[in-house]
Amino acid sequence: MAEEEKEIEEEKKGPSLPSKPLEKLTIKELREIALKIPNVQGVHGMNKAELVALLKDYFGIKEEKKRDVASIRELKKKIRELKAKREEARSKGDKKIVNILRRTDKSAQEKNQKVGSLEMNIVLPKFLSQLRPYSAGKPIKEVQTEYGISMPVKLASNENPLGPSPKAIAAIKEALQDIHRYPDSQITELRYKLASVLGVKSQQIVIGNGSDEIMSFIGQAFLLSGEEVIVPFPSFSIYEKVAIMSQANLIKVPLKNLSIDLEAIKDRISQKTKLIFLTNPHNPTGSFFEAPLLENFLKNVPRSTLIILDEAYIDFVSPKRHFESLNYLKDFSNLIILRSFSKSYGLAGLRVGYGIMNIELANILERVRYPFNVNTLAQVAAINALDDKEFLETTRKLVWEGREFITKALTELGIRVYPSEANFLLVYIGKKAVEIYESLLKKGIIVRPLTNYHLPEYIRISIGKPEENQTFIEFFKEIWQK
Questions:
Q1: Distance (Å, whole) CA 244 – CA 255
Q2: Most buried among 143, 380, 423, 438, by the most CB within 10 A?
Q3: What is the pLDDT of residue 9?
Q4: How many contiguous H segments (helices) and E segments (strands) does the chain have?
Q5: Distance between CA atoms of 281 and 269, rounded to whole angstroms?
Q6: Which of these, 203, 190, 212, lies nearest to 363 by C-alpha position?
Q7: What was the pLDDT predicted at 161?
């Protein structure tokens, strides 16, 4: 535990500026440096020019600060010297020299006030230095352009390989004629539809432009500077961003055997703990904790601490292990459950997520929710996707069968595949993980390297259509056995 915490602290410091110019470093050297930047993602999908640009941006901020400090010291020294000369000239009665020195001193003072800010005099919050733009998995079009492959197979972003429900597509086409109108700001019909499907009150539901927007609402509404946010480590990077944006103290609790360690999280709770993020099933490992463990955890968390249970992958849990977490809302008023239309419903490109919680919490989040945050097409697609139960069941069956197929095929090659209740698999490759990822890219197979999740010896494979899974296995076997 001590070694893991030390490693986490080292990662927070970030990389040091290399002695050689960035342009003269190899892509491997650039990547090793970039991976040390806190909260940066998508490094393995970047080419050399992109890596150089990223590092120039990162080190440019630090160099500017160093130059600012040096400039301030130099100017202050100059001001002291000018004042001494002015006093000396005054004592000698030389008014001409005194006036010249006064003007020079004033100019130096004005420069001193400007140092440390941007050219337009905007001073940035300190916490921004801890944030990096989110970088997703490698896009299909980029692979097509870079490798000349017409039909890549994307198994990287945990999307629904079947696409959206036909009912959702039909609803979108019908709604296109109304996109000159603002959407329903209260998202009334979708809230009522969800309430009916889930067996809760519509006032308990908050809808966002993806569930990560609801996470940002939670941070804005509840987090105060200096309070604590506990997250499993590694996990979805947005949890950390929520904490940093609110200038809260982030506490990372390492996974245990690549599963969320609820006992360890419970032990880290203090009087300052405001939020705890949990994912079930967990991303990126696919691990899952069952009802008794969650119930025991909820009973041991103070009501002053909010528990955010992210269930983006809940629809893929096998029937024998699935349980309904909504049943705990009645007894635990500090529980917020997040779900998504991006995975099982195939609406990732429209961005619709929702939270279920007690009415009092929902009313607070509604105060910080922006109007018209979910567009018209997203609303009608989600409403109609909920009606297509046959499509949802087809998706689940495809994922369950795909998990079994890929697990069996990779296990036969002697590769360790971790049990998963999500629509992806965590696979241990070893030191060749990045090499395997890049070799698959050249074949047009996009999987997810996990260096940014601090799992450099693993890859994550999303479940695709049967023919995509088969293509992946064939190319993987060819590369692995070389």
A1: 21
A2: 423
A3: 55
A4: 16, 13
A5: 22
A6: 203
A7: 96
Rounded distance between C-alpha atoms, residue 217 and residue 49, angstroms: 36
- Helical H runs in 36-179? 48-91, 95-114, 140-147, 166-175
Q: Do the strands 458-462 and 228-233 form a parallel or antiparallel pair, or are they unpaired? A: unpaired
Residues 6+ apart with CB under 8 A from 255: 232, 233, 234, 261, 282, 285, 287
Task: Give the rounded distance of the alpha carbon of 151 from its chain centre.
Answer: 28
Classify strands 335-340 and 353-356 as parallel, antiparallel or unpaired. Answer: antiparallel
Q: What is the pLDDT of residue 124?
A: 80
Which pLDDT does position 63 carry in this prediction? 44
Low-confidence ranges of the chain (pLDDT < 50): 1, 61-67, 112-118
Model confidence pLDDT, tens digit, residues 140-192 = 888 888 888 889 999 999 999 999 999 999 999 999 999 999 999 999 999 99
DSSP for residue 156: S
pLDDT for residue 11: 52
The residue behind tokens 């040096």 is 70
Cα(114)–Cα(171) distance, rounded to whole angstroms?
56
What tokens does 200 get? 């809760």
Q: Which three-class secondary structure state does DSSP give residue 274? A: strand
SS (H, E, C) 340-358: ECCCCCCCCCCCCEEEECC
pLDDT of residue 402: 98
Distance in angstroms (rounded) separating the CA atoms of residues 181 and 188: 16
What's the pLDDT tens digit per position in 408-443?
999 999 999 999 999 999 999 999 999 999 999 999
What is the C-alpha to C-alpha distance for residues 357 and 204, in angstroms, rounded to an integer? Answer: 5
Question: The tokens 């890859």 sit on which residue?
Answer: 459
Confidence (pTM): 0.77
Task: Tell the residue number behind the tokens 């999987």, with chain if given.
Answer: 447
The letter for the amino acid at 53 is A
Taking Cα atoms as reference points, which of 207, 107, 159, 131 lies closest to residue 342? 159
In eight-state DSSP terms, residue 398 is H
Helix axes 237-245 and 211-222, enclosed angle (nearest 10): 30
What is the pLDDT, as a whole number, of residue 113? 46
pLDDT of residue 344: 97
Which residue from 454, 403, 4 is spatially nearest to 236, judged by alpha carbons? 454
Q: Closest by alpha carbon to 286, among 137, 114, 459? A: 459
User: Which residues are bridge partners to 309 per DSSP?
Assistant: 278, 337
The model's pLDDT over 372-413, given as tens digits with 9 standing for 90+, comes to 999 999 999 999 999 999 999 999 999 999 999 999 999 999
Cα distance between residue 400 and residue 420, in whole Å:
10
Six token digits for residue 345? 């419903």
pLDDT reported for residue 136: 72
Contact between 330 and 298 under an 8 Å Cβ cutoff? The reply is no
